[in-house]
Predict the structure.
Amino acid sequence: MEHMQIFFQQLINGISLGSIYALIALGYTMVYGIIKLINFAHGDIYMVGAYVGFFAITKLNMSFIPALVASMLFCALLGIVIERMAYKPLRNATRIAALITAIGVSLFLEYGGILIVSPQPRAFPDVFPMSKLTFFDGKVYMTNQQIVIFLVAIILMILLQYIVHRTKIGKAMRAVSYDQDAALLMGINVNTTISATFAIGSALAGAAGVLVGIYYTSISPLMGIIPGLKAFVAAVLGGIGSIPGAAVGGLLMGVIEAMVSGYWSSTLRDAVAFGILILILIIKPTGIFGKNIREKV
Amino acid sequence: MLKINDINVYYGAIHAIKGISLEVKEGEIITLIGANGAGKSTILKTISGLLRSKTGDILFNNKSLHSMAAQDIVRSGICHIPEGRRIFANMSVLENLELGCFLQKDKAAIKKNMEHVFEKFPRLKERISQSAGTLSGGEQQMLAIGRGMMSRPKLMLLDEPSMGLAPLLVKEIFSIIKEINEAGTTILLVEQNANMALSIANYAYVLETGKIVLKGPTAELAESEDLKKAYLGG
């Protein structure tokens, strides 16, 4: 019986953490899908999102939802600016040049962050009263924060699915990611479409930043590095470029980490996370949902 | 309608189009024929804005396309159906057609255009929700042409519509091209299948390594000894 309790408790913890990974992984995968760039600055956008949420709540006295929206909007704008200034001039350059630039942007955000908000970690305010939902006579529980994280992540993913499949900009995004020249011939404005992709991906990272602030109650300028890398692993696990893949990959990563912490040791969870990356690259580099679609000519 | 004045196009250091001028008159079918690498597709890409000419100019209804963004060229009434169809294989037939009139905002007009496409290609209607990548080669070509028709273009640029298709299908596609033309769309057709192209076009240009080596009304060209030797297997 105790075994089952650990399992269910870690499953709940894993799904909450995994929802956050999934939100970050979605941005990675969308940007990769459209310009074939691993945007290593993506984890730092998530950090910026956490800080915007922090200041919105503490300095502007916003409640949770307005702070979440403010953070998403700010990050969307930041994503567009980064793409226009750093990546667009390199669109026809080699992929390695863009990748190195992404690492540069990442360092710029991290150390720019240290300069502006100081390297001291800050305590994220409690937005929700501490209470829990209990199961199995109180031995397995789900906190308010976990419920909020899960709900927000699900709502945002449904919204994303709607945007990508039902709206015009979503269709343009899929067309550009499949074949940029053919999209141009349809009259699609490729620059606007790429900007929109960065905006949406960055907004999701911003939301993840606020959620993680609520969950771990501590934020710092370098907080984006490890979750950013893990979300990248999650995106590769799901199949980079695939939106459902990023969602599933993120959730799986969260659950695997929680299980490793619960049954084994929490010091090993990072090793396992990056071990997964190595295993996938060896066994199935296209990930769970990645396919090599071959065209008929 | 379309006037190309002495354009030079480069791929890096390679001089692909060497001072070509040509004219497309409204209502006609003009064909560009020539071997692989002659520069046929390059000319079409330069018209639709995927490539830019270094010198020279392209005028469409007396407006220069040279510094126009690709989407504005589409908006002005030119549609380019690229070589190899380039359909969006990961999307449904319906979504492909919708993307064909991306700039059209009027829903009623979109619906009308789609009905028009289905009239020409009833097979696309049967497969409307099917993923485009699962269509046969001939159906994919029909989808590519149908997608092009969705924008109701004044000028259609067609790049190798016969590529990889069985002779019977080639005949079908060409008769549809002729119908589209008769319904009022001007056509600039690039082909390696010179016989077929000459059979439906009014005027032809023959390209060799980036230069026009022969031009004239198709009836005359079909009799030309040079052309017969080079392209018609005569």
Q: What stands out?
A: Confidence is low (pLDDT under 50) at residues 293-297 of chain A. Residues 233 and 276 of chain A are 8 Å apart (CA to CA).
